[in-house]
Amino acid sequence: MQNLDEFLSEPVNNQKISEKRKAKSESNEPNLKKEIIENNAKSFLLGVGYDGDKGLAYAKLYDFKSDKIVLWFDDTGHKPYCISDQPIEVLEENKDLVSHSGFDHFEEIEKYDPITDSQKKMTKIVARDPLSIGGRPIGCIRDIIKAWEADIRYAENYIHDRNLEIGMPYEVKDGKLIPSKFELPDSILADLEKTLEDELDEFKKLSYNWARLLECPVPEFMRASIDIEVYSPIETRIPDPNEAEYPIICISIIGTDDFRQVLLLKRENIPEESESISLDADIIFFQTEKELLSYFFKCIGKYPIIVTFNGDDFDLRYLRNRAQSLDFEKEQIPIELGRDYATIRKGIHLDLYRFFFNRSIQVYAFGQKYREKSLNEIGSSLLNVGKKEITKPISELTYSELAIYCYRDAEITINLTKFDDSLLIKLMILLARISYMDIEDVTRQGVSGWIRSMLFHEHKKRNYLIPRQDEILEFKGRTVSEAIIKGKKYKGAIVVEPTPGVHFGVSVLDFASLYPSVIKIWNLGYGTVNCPHEDEECKNNKVPNMSHWVCKKRKALESLLIGSLRDLRVNFYKPKLKDPNLSDNMRSWYRVVSDGLKVVLNASYGVFGADRFALYCPPVAEATAAIGRYVIQNTIDKAQSLGIHVLYGDTDSIFFESSDQMQLKNLIEWSKNSMKLELEVDKEYKYVALSSRKKNYLGVYSDGKVDIKGLTGKKRHTPKFIKNTFYEMIDKLSEVESKEEFEKIKGEIKNIVKKCYLKLKNREYSLEDLAFSIVISKSPERYTKTTPQHVKAAQLLMEKGIDIKRGDLITFVKVVGETGVKPVSLASINEIDSQKYVEYIDSIFDQVFDPMDIDFQELIGATKLEKFF
DNA sequence: GCGGACTGCTTACCT
DNA sequence: ACAGGTAAGCAGTCCGCG
Length: 869
Hints:
CATH superfamily of the largest domain: Ribonuclease H-like superfamily/Ribonuclease H
Largest sheet: 7 strands, antiparallel
Number of domains: 6
Radius of gyration: 30 Å
Helix content: 40-55%
CATH architecture of the largest domain: 2-Layer Sandwich
CATH topology of the largest domain: Nucleotidyltransferase, domain 5
Shape: globular
Distance between the termini: 82 Å
Strand order of the largest sheet: 17-19-20-18-21-22-23
């Protein structure tokens, strides 16, 4: 494959492609599907499962010829196992073990143990089935003896042991599963080589492998979204999918092949409508629910991939259980349920809710574009299309209303996978490649699961023993620093005391991926921090200001893996994205790669301090943070010795008065030479307004763009009327070019705030304008220690019979009287406590007035005088 | 019995 | 179920006060 660019420009490859798209695809040669077949890549590996009846692992392959998922069953005789440190002779004495029904045989093996830095003779205990190792509530092999690698899911183990690359092209030849050749294009190879000049061979090898995975083009996959509606006799209650008590009255299916159907159940007492339903879809009525479901199951059978929004917990679960209670045979229902997931037999189910719920995805991949995780909110913010509004309960809708409502949900769902050139699917594939994880698992697990899988894969590839969690803790000891926040395990980052005032000409420098860089440069990992070597070389290699030391003899896997990913992002993909010659298709793919790497890198330090992480190692996290503090403090000290004025800093960034660009250059040089860390100019502000508060500033670029960080005026819960006033003020501030102009607009800003104050006093704002909106993060009854205001408001709503769940957004206003607050829906405008609101305005604008030397009290005091005259 | 000082809880944010 | 650090508001408690 030489021309990656052309592959990426390939349009949807479908058999039932619409006429319009067909024309487009013909004009758009070469065809990726054709190319892939010519290159013997007939399919893509999307995941691995285990078939309990056959007792075999199987690969799920997306076959391009048929656009179906094809299963390939293991032919290598791979079996579930765990590992013991006892020799076979000893284990043979263990009656419970050798007589266990799932026990198969022992094998003598050798493993490298990173904790002790030694080769170890160990015994592989091979079992007949995965559940015998672990998974049953009692009597598993891992409960009988102390075992290693015993709680890795079998399918995951299979991926690692067979070194399978999920999301990459494969083919089945003579019954064997073999990877299709995909080599890095020469041009990419040459570019990459340049960035890797000074690295160790081991590091280079890893980097090339990553690049091969990241550069392989991602084709389009045929898929369909589904959404169901269920009848409910009680309007406020959502039917329980485990009971599946009530009939499914509507199902929408939308395929990427332009298949669009809405299936409706005929019911009594639903008025016939004279006009036909106006939807760009086939509407099909069914007399019985059984007919409807049969038809539906046939429809989705065509699709290799089904996407839903919350299908794990609702749609698929309901469908399966409902079909069962309608006496469908098990084989007739193409849905399989797990404890907390649902999937399609011979298919892939992607639950977008699960993926969007993931905080890393929300924050780093989508930049907080959506705040709540509802289909309406996500659809509105990413597609500009929200759910269809309905004013009646589902069960009372007419056929037409019901069809339109249900269809819209399916439409948003499928479009979420299609927008921005199928960005979402590409992101999932990318994460599957980095983590060597089944694509369904990628969407369901968090970033710690991905990183765990990536590290496990590398362990197995190198025949390293994967340590037990208790082992790491026992050998590596605890943390030695004290956190500033009560209840935290160790000390974190430094935040520099800001210099209050309005500063013109500010450069912000930061370390590119500071923590991943530290992990790379300092060779951090559970095997290297506090390594077992007795000699001085290691023990003297202290983490600054700390008793921990770092190994000088061995390379940590974490350091190599995280380091190589970091370098690829910083030295390769980020510069490529800045290249004006990059084509649109490549740019969009590189954006995905860069964002995917960002997600993984941003979490790569935190996982070592998370006690549920499989390779939890507090000293690694603590050392990383400590080195981070050392680095930024050293840099600040150096800057001051160079005479550069430091205004503020946080973790990995420093704000400088940028009078002397030459000096900043010197600082960057110094950082590279003395600490091997890349310090770079991140932002240049026309001016920055700093109050005395940390994590709280306003920065204006020369083009007028404004960064607002931490200011309450921007926060989600702030009432609309204050937000609007706040942004009116920001608009004014964005125009300011100099100190002199600044003085001039002060009056205008005062007027803006004064206007707001007067409108409030005259009760000209609506309840919606005045509403605070705060997420209730726990179920209301679980607030036992205190009753915060939003919980009080929630309680008032519950008294009215409204159901409040955790995660709901509570909107309330401050009122005079006992409770102090009332939900918007229950309050009236004349009970508003305007005094409280004045205090609130004061506090919000003080964050900006403080550096500007404006006095709020004086401002409203003046107002009173004016009114007087 | 009351108000100010204090601590702790909660949410939303920053890196 | 990636981490720790900070701001802010409010709830609840303690303490002094002839």
